[in-house]
Amino acid sequence: xxxxxxxxxxxxxxxxxxxxxxxxxxxxxxxxxxxxxxxxxxxxxxxxxxxxxxxxxxxxxxxxxxxxxxxxxxxxxxxxxxxxxxxxxxxxxxxxxxxxxxxxxxxxxxxxxxxxxxxxxxxxxxxxxxxxxxxxxxxxxxxxxxxxxxxxxxxxxxxxxxxxxxxxxxx
Amino acid sequence: xxxxxxxxxxxxxxxxxxxxxxxxxxxxxxxxxxxxxxxxxxxxxxxxxxxxxxxxxxxxxxxxxxxxxxxxxxxxxxxxxxxxxxxxxxxxxxxxxxxxxx
Lengths: 171, 102
Known about the structure:
The complex is a heterodimer of chains A (171) and B (102). Chain A is mainly alpha-helical and 171 residues long. Chain A is built from 6 helices and no strands. Chain A is globular and about 60 Å long. Classes of the chains: A mainly alpha (171), B mainly alpha (102). Chains A and B meet through helix 1, helix 2, helix 3, helix 4 and helix 5 of A and helix 1, helix 2 and helix 3 of B.
């Protein structure tokens, strides 16, 4: 019983973290603050993975997203050098606001309404999967996906170098 | 409300906030941050559906790991594109990059 209440409290805490981080990531005028909001959201989602008994995914979330992707985004922010008076703080037209609010409402109303109208039965406790099971899955039935993702990563890295490489003498 | 519905609602929240930001943001880097929010919502929804229903939990968790790999690849490519756009247009505003022939 106590564990149940604790789980609910932890879930509410993570929802608050995700919501605050999301709002900060979208609305902050300074891009570095937006990145901090994104990192907050990533930690909140990692906590939710832990609550769902998926510790490996939570660890990977922190390693890959917080460790690698946010560093990449930070380098991108450093490259564009926008200050607080940069492009993000110019006023928006009414049409932009209308489109943004429509884009916010469309999935919230359609998907959220469908979720609440037709709830799917869920098991009260999450399924426990060990890291060994995941490894067997990667080397067993899902080998092709595993190999393909490594090829995709390699091609993306090579493509990034190719795109950003400055040719001598220009083009 | 069941636990699965609650987790899926959080995923929908991430999706909605991400789409809002994608339209709201002016710079390419701001849009990249919003795309990461979207991908996180997808991962959360996938893990919730795998862990809280009789569906294969291994498949769901591995799918989320693949999404993370794709997100890393996508962030790398966007970083390269930002470098090229900065060099050619001297700004990272998405409105400025509207001509096809450079």
